[in-house]
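note to self: the first set is below, dont mix up w the second
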Amino acid sequence: MSLPGHRDLLEATAELTYCNPFLRERVALERRALGRAFEHHGEVWHPDELTAPNPNVVRIQERLETAVPAWRSELLEHGAPSREELRLYRDVVYYTIYNRWQADLLALVLRPEGPRRVALWTDFEAGHAFLLPPELQLEGQAPADLVFAWFFQLRRAFHHVFHSLHGSSRPVAELRAQVWQSIFSHDMRRFRRGLYSRIGDFTTLITGPSGTGKELVARAIGMSRFIPFDPRRAAFVEDFRSSFIALNLAALSPTLVESELFGHRKGSFTGAIEDRKGWLETCSPLGSVFLDEIGEISLDLQVKLLRVLQTRAFQRIGDTTDRRFEGKLIASTHRDPEEEMRAGRMRPDFYYRICSDLVATPSLRRQLAAAPEDLASLVQLIVTGLVGDRDVASVTAEILDWIESRLGVDYAWPGNFRELEQCVRNLLIRGSYEPAASPAPAASTMRADLASEVAAMKLDAEALLRRYTTLVYFHAGSFVGAARRLGFDRRTVKARIDPEYLARLRAASEAPSAPPDGTARRNRQTEPPGPRPAEEGGGGLAG
């Protein structure tokens, strides 16, 4: 390659084609591609800041629209390019044509109707054929229809990951990066070599406190699976909107859970008046079944699901015919799997079949501790959904003022996003909200221990006041809430906190049974994989 001054641009772009857009590597590659023209952004890339196309992506694309045709001509003119040159050229072309048509791909994602002829295909096929003629293709290179299907998957995945998981904090950025890896793995090159057709064989387990958006994560993964494109019909073989099936196991009796999953034969139990397919049978090979709160199912049902995971075979209730589940299984639980196994409520062999891909959702407390400004954007999101676009700004400001004055900016939100949503609803209807006091069992034990120490007269007045103030602050969730209960001002509460006693209360609250701040005990299985999340703006192939 002899294009002067373009080597960094082309080599960095080739790497951008395969990078996780939510990790730091993307930022470094954009900086390398643009040099001094690189534009710095906020610390974490998130929807609240995306009011216009990312300038770095725009600048890279402008340069490529000139450089790639020139490079094509050079390769064809000189002939006999090396394998490495062809590989680099192909990857740069992929980046170029994806970004050329990404707005049209997004329109396909957002359109309400199901699969039909895709008009974009004609232009895409022509552009692909021009930039990647047979003379510039590697042996076994993917045909245009497969590339088109990959690009549609990328655009869907970016849309669902980027817009479903709200917030600007580093924990949310880490979550987006985890979800991206669940969809494509950490190695996009390997994914495109063939893993894209086998990713459904990997079960995803989402762990995290209740109310932290586990179903949003599952939906983003399920709605972003690879769907082949049929060039003869110029249409995708399936509509991604119908490919995700969610089942809340905690809301159903064991019999109903089994019937919903596996189906039943007529007369197999009272009320079975006809043969019925279960969701495992209904799900297409390109679809996903999401089992919410899988930690609630019985050991017997775990055995039956274990067979599905091991052999892909199952039987309807009352039937002896084997049927096959060809889709992807996604599960979630708010419980700690290690604790559930120790207590005998989860079979180890079952757990080790569902943990091939792990995603951990952060508590709202952790999210707001990293980015307090997220509270305003989350409240605005909820208000918009409840009252529409009218008066959103004034209603949001009113609710934020109430939360700051009555609960305090340091309120722990033990019910996570679900509690925040109900707080907003209460304020809209009644103008007030009273948090429920629901301490974890271990924290309640410490409260009983304090009462015993008082009864035994083991504490002096100062120690008693400090511990009691700390206990009230812990359960109130904020200095403002504790001050209202104690009759102190906020500064007095803050001055009387016992740091050691507070640390013990928090450690007790993070026991797996019922963490009051919604933060499950983290372990090696639930740590976010991979590098740290991206900073300073957006970009990458999916941007």
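second set (the one i keep forgetting abt)
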Amino acid sequence: MQLLVGMKNTVALFDFSKKINYKNELLAGLTVAMTMIPESLSFAILAGLSPLTGLYAAFMMGLVTAIFGGRPGMVSGGAGATIVVLIALIKTHGVEYLFATVALAGVFQMLVGIFKLGKFVRLIPQPVMYGFLNGLAVIIFMAQIEQFKITDANGVVGWLQGTALYIMLGLTALTIAIVYFFPKITKVIPASLVAIVIIFGIVLGFGIPTKTVSDIAHISGNLPNFHIPEISFSLETLQIIFPYALIMAGVGLIESLLTLSMVDEITNSKGNTNKEAVAQGLANVTNGFFGGMGGCAMVAQTLVNLNAGSRARLSGIIASLTILIIILVGAPFIEKIPMAALVGVMMMVAISTFQWVSIIIINKMPKSDIFVGITVALITIILHNLALAVLVGVIISALVFAWDNAKRIRARKLTDENGIKYYQISGPLFFGSVTTFIDKFDPVNDPDQVVIDFKESRIVDMSAIDALDKLSKKYTQQNKKLHLRHLSEDCRKMLKNAEAVIEVNIQDDPTYKVMPEK
């Protein structure tokens, strides 16, 4: 019985209960591994780290999140979004502080998942998603342009010239053509993998001199070893790494959960944000104790994976194990792969990442949404700070929403045969609408009995309660009585909790019922 339970749990873990196309998963995993290597190497070198630190991150992030993550088909690795925020720490305190920070960031991410806070990604509006993806597409594309540079013997970086440049351009163009046209012939084999193999064969067969992976770094190494960061475990150390860890955790989760939402849309399925947050955190804790630079979900590699036909966890596992095999024994072979092939693949990924529909419908979108999308894209491109870009986008969207709703509050006025004046309110009463709300009343000229009817309105926040308190006092000063009617249960509860700071007369209405929320 225990064996059957264990087998059932294993089936659930790897999603083998669903039909899996093993060929697609295998080929997608190999393709993803090929595209992850140069990106992980580039960001590790950019941060002043050993190339193996980036590859270890690609292996460990990919493997842990593929097995335990909340979104089959999503790929994680040593992403630039997370390492960029740690460059200053690495330069001032060294790599050991990096490992401690990555581990602490992982703990923060796990806590987000454990306390089920991942759901807040739903607060990110569609224009923010458009801006995020469009900005990311530009970053991916521009990163490939950097591969047309080379470092000479004196360490001077310059653009490729003459024949070398033309060869690189030609091979890149051929790669793009293969990736674009090959699916029109057959989708049995991922076009990206076919392009890499063909370009590799052409360069090797004809002995064409061109830039290869080995020009970035040598990637041969051993298994990652368990390693406790060599730092002073003190309050002073915590003060140093805490802000960096918090920022890294936030950046990593935002990019990962946005990627998860993107995959949900593409695959028309639903991922588990909290489970993904825990997996991202566990992967980063593993990185911190096994010498990796940490990371998060990788949008470009995820799109490569999905375009290759993967819909399960298996491709991510294969990609990670492939990277490990390359580190251990396959480095001499992989280092010969032309960079033009990888550049072409990633350029096509950038083109497919860009949300062209946002350009098509731009004249049909509200101006505020256009502004939000462009702002998020520009911050993403200029600052390479995805967390800041998304945060700014959400804040602007929230302010626009508040402003629009503030203008929607209305008051229909009528007086009955008994001389009682009614204000029938429609629209939410909150911080943005309280000024307009108060301006609609006339305590001096109103009759002695005034009723505010909230049947089509809601008291939302403390600003609304304060506004009612001030209004009530104005009528009291005129020796007039103000009544509140048709308050929903949540509004009554809010006023009950605020009895210490407000005094209003709630008029009972036994005929008014509010449907409870399900």
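remember for set 2: Residues 1-13, 510-518 have pLDDT under 50 and may be disordered.
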